[in-house]
Amino acid sequence: MDDKLMLMIPGPTPVPETALLALAKHPIGHRTSEFSNLIGEMTQNLKWLHQTQSDVMMLTTSGTGAVEAGIINFLSLGDRILVGCNGKFGERWAEVGDAYGLNVERITAEWGQPLDTQQFAEKLTQDTEKQIKAVVVTHSETSTGVLNDLETISRLVKEHGEALMIVDAVTSLGAVNLPMDAWGLDVVASGSQKGYMIPPGLGFVAVSPKAWEAYKTAKLPRYYLDLGKYRKSAAKNTTPFTPPVNLMVALHATLGMMQAEGLESIFSRHQRLMNATRAAIKGLNMPLFAPDTNASPAITSVAPQGIEADPIRNLMKKRFDIALAGGQDHLKNKIFRIGHLGFVSDRDVLSAIASLEVVLQELGYEGFTPGSGVAAATRVFAQS
Ligand SMILES: *Cc1c(COP(=O)(O)O)cnc(C)c1O
């Protein structure tokens, strides 16, 4: 059957009809008072979402552009930075640092394991001359499904005093508690096709007063991604360059939906989706790739044994039109990833798990009792 695609990948995520209808309209002029009013309202809603009083700016980029902007606006050539690398995205931010001539120190952990906060503590306390200018951490490492302990790392960075805490929050914002001001985060970057529930194309960067101080003396080159330009424009409810107006009208709609649901409900829904998915995978006797202590509420990675990951994904797509994500780099064909981020309900997880059971049987996988994954998921949903 056509036209029944179900996205269970960690981005792009499903888009609610309200937002799809907003996207279908004629673009409005971006220098009109109508559009300015929208920007004004969205700016307030974005602050609410980030739990901050600081500036939150919208850029026409994917998530990578937002994180890159969040790094280059506050640093200078040769600055020493620590980058947490326990997956594809952490590695990407280290590469951005390399590309701009920063002195990058990678704090690594095996893919599938969380970053070791003790290693950050050691580097930061040994740095008595305060040469570390920034610490970059990917909160929810999408490539593995690991949630890093950002709260602890940001506390260590606060104690250091000089370094900025720069966060890739692309698959954590709108899924798990991320109180920017309470945790003292300096830069929080995200992208539209994840928790925001709209298609790709917009990036978001929230910037603390401390980071704006660093901006004044930062010397790395910047033009399109110069956040000062966006800040100036945002103060006047406008944008420095032509923004994707349709995407923004759609965003206005989804931010309204998020406000109506409430932050606590959004977080508990993602927690429930994660718990049900993980319980189901355990019920299927399949190893989870991320530990229970550090599991991302946005994405669950599964490392099947005795059966390859990609045939499972391929048949899920062919048989049920459910898109799952694969493994990246050395994890290709070793893991598959179930996204449950954004516009995802309990029903979606039940469908995905039941479909997965059919697929596993069709592939001749005998490591589970049919019905055991669904049963485990229903138990979680019945209790919460
Ligand atoms: C999706 C994602 C990004 C951004 O990727 P783009 O393709 O540039 O939008 C960055 N970090 C994480 C953790 C992500 O999941």
TrEMBL record:
GO terms for biological process: glycine biosynthetic process, by transamination of glyoxylate. The keyword Transferase applies. Coiled coil: none annotated. Substrate binds at R337. The modification N6-(pyridoxal phosphate)lysine is found at K194. Its cofactor is pyridoxal 5'-phosphate. Residues 28-329 form the Aminotransferase class V domain. Keywords: Aminotransferase, Pyridoxal phosphate, Transferase. Belongs to the class-V pyridoxal-phosphate-dependent aminotransferase family. The keyword Chaperone does not apply. It comes from the Bacteria. GO terms for molecular function: alanine-glyoxylate transaminase activity; L-serine-pyruvate transaminase activity. Soluble hydrogenase catalyzes both production and consumption of hydrogen from suitable artificial electron donors or acceptors. This subunit catalyzes the tritium-exchange activity. This is Tritium exchange subunit. PANTHER family: ALANINE--GLYOXYLATE AMINOTRANSFERASE, AMINOTRANSFERASE CLASS V. The lineage of its organism: Bacteria, Bacillati, Cyanobacteriota, Cyanophyceae, Chroococcidiopsidales. Heterodimer of a large and a small subunit.
